[in-house]
Amino acid sequence: MTRRVAGIVVTAIALALTGGLAWFVTQTPGSVFSNEPEPTIAAATPQPQTVLVTVKQGESPKAIGDALAKLGIIRSARLFEVLVGVTGVQNALQAGDYEFDTGLPAIEVVRRIAQGKTASREVLIPEGRRVEEVAAILDRSGVVKKQDFLDALVKSRYSEPFLAQTKTTDLEGFIFPATYQFTRNEKPQDVVNAFLQAFQVNVADKLQLEGQNLTLDQVVTLASIVEREAQLPAERPIIASVFLNRLRAGIPLQADPTVQFAVAQDPASVATYGYWKASLTVDDLKLKSPYNTYVNPGLPPGPIANPGFDAIQAVVRPAQTNYLFFVAKGDGSHAFAETLAEHLRNVQKYQSGQ
């Protein structure tokens, strides 16, 4: 037996005697990181605490082990270092932010860092949400505080190419709805930047505006209204055609979501009805606001929510119709009409009992 091999054996036996490797030395190399249940090792503290630790690029196993032990995540920095060596993952430890409970078995900590299982959170941003609603989702997910996110929505801080085409001063409408992977306590500006990069890649780089009479701002603004109106994906292009036909004819859009957006400028209304007041009153429809499309012709000053690509595409490639009106049937679909008389019959048919 060589001196080197003997040293490894002695080290393994010593660790085994302390209980740190009693089970580990019996494992085969192929089962070290398997999905099989691992032996339970008592936690160092009766009430584990969740701790966030950052592993830097190129950081040594010793430095990582020292940091983990100092934070109380593992009991022995030396055990961590030995486990890294025994499992052969010295060059596989991945940088990133990790979340661990204090007292976690050291082998589990090694496994997670070697497999790059960072403290990521999968966050779904649905279509048609206002920035305040997006901020609330991020806050609940532990990604960033709501107000910190809202404070970071300053257009001048970001440099995505599409922003040069926009004249709106805020970023409502350009927070791209999708599923994201964020870590805990992200920097607010990094989160905003991720949304804007997604808009650039998924919308701006794919959108064909040649031959359109609408600017990017106008497309996204109208798409945000379509997103709020349409419940059935197949109806998006039809609803878009209705609004485009009304714009061409100089007829006010009379879109309820724009009134809901206007009403929600009042914090008291938000506290009572939420951001999208379900039942609008006659007084609501008369509200003086540039966003009220019952009072003002044309498009509102900017988007009222953040639309998905399909709603944006529906505005750029609408259905070819002569429809000027639509009314909800109560089942998620709408009845469309070319004339006011036909529309009034639809209203009587589908909403007389409401």
What portion of residues is helical? 40-55%
**Global morphology:** elongated
- Total E-strand runs: 6
Mean pLDDT over the residues: 87
User: How large, in whole angstroms, is the Cα Rg?
Assistant: 29 Å
Treating each run of at least 4 consecutive H or I residues as one helix, how many helices? Answer: 14
Outline the biggest β-sheet. 2 strands, antiparallel
Main structural class: mainly alpha
How much of the residues is beta strand, in percent? 5-15%
Instruction: Report low-confidence residues grouped into runs of 5 or more.
Output: 1-45
Order of helices and strands: HEHHEHEHHEHHHHHHHEEH
What strand line-up does the widest sheet have?
Answer: 1-2
Taking the alpha carbons of the first and last residues, their distance comes to 89 Å
Describe the structure.
The chain is mainly α and 354 residues long. It is built from 14 helices and six strands. It has helices at residues 3-18, 61-70, 77-87, 106-114, 131-140, 146-151, 188-204, 216-229, 236-249, 256-263, 267-273, 282-285, 309-316, 340-351; strands spanning 50-55, 96-101, 120-124, 179-183, 325-328, 334-337. The strands form three sheets. It has a two-stranded antiparallel sheet with strand order 1-2. The protein has a two-stranded antiparallel sheet with strand order 3-4. It has a two-stranded antiparallel sheet with strand order 5-6. Strand 5 and strand 6 form a beta hairpin. Helix 8 packs across helix 13. The chain is elongated and about 80 Å long. The relative contact order is 0.09. Mean pLDDT is 87; it is low at 1-45.
